[in-house]
Amino acid sequence: MSKKRGPPQVAFDGVADTATEFIVVEVKYLREPWVSARTINEILQRSLAAEALLRRSGDKRPLRLLMVFVIGKDTGGGKGRLVGVLNTRLKDAPVAVDFEVYFFDELKESLTQGA
Fold first, then answer.
1. CA distance 81 to 26
2. How many Å apart are CA 66 and CA 12, to the nearest integer?
3. End-to-end Cα spacing for the chain
4. pTM
5. What domain count does the chain have?
6. Any domain includes 44
């Protein structure tokens, strides 16, 4: 029995559809400040697939990927190291990429201060 293949599924944690660009958002929780090249490449490949879907639908707006990394445990200096690794891995990315890095405790604190 053969399975019918539909269009590729391109899922992200969030999207922002503006008049000038289409933004896809991917959030990754990391127990420690380390992310594999495989994970980064998989996110970039999904971004390219999303961009291809936009083009096939006739949408000419640029796609931008926003990656947000949340680190569970501060192991000392890890945030800076992770930022350096991400800068290196993403400098020649095939799509426009922005990223943010937070410690989980920072996010928790900002939520309690805003309440």
1. 20
2. 10
3. 55
4. 0.85
5. 1
6. yes
Whether residue 68 contacts residue 28, with contact meaning beta carbons closer than 8 Å, is answered with yes
- What is the extent of the structural domain holding 73? 15-114
| Residue range 21-34, pLDDT digits in tens | 999 999 999 998 88
pLDDT of residue 114: 63
What rounded mean pLDDT belongs to the chain? 89
User: 67 lies in a domain?
Assistant: yes
Q: For 86-108, what is each residue's pLDDT tens digit?
A: 999 999 999 999 999 999 988 88
Query: Which pLDDT tens digit goes with each residue over 34-65?
Result: 899 999 999 999 999 999 999 999 999 999 99
For residue 79, is it within any domain?
yes
CA distance linking residue 78 with residue 82, whole number of Å: 6
> How many CB atoms sit inside 10 A of residue 29's CB?
10
Distances, alpha carbon 78 to alpha carbons 29, 39, 63, 81, in Å: 14, 18, 29, 5
Helix 78-90 to helix 37-56 angle (10° resolution) is 50
What is the residue whose two structure tokens read 């289409």? 22
Does residue 7 fall inside a structural domain?
Answer: no
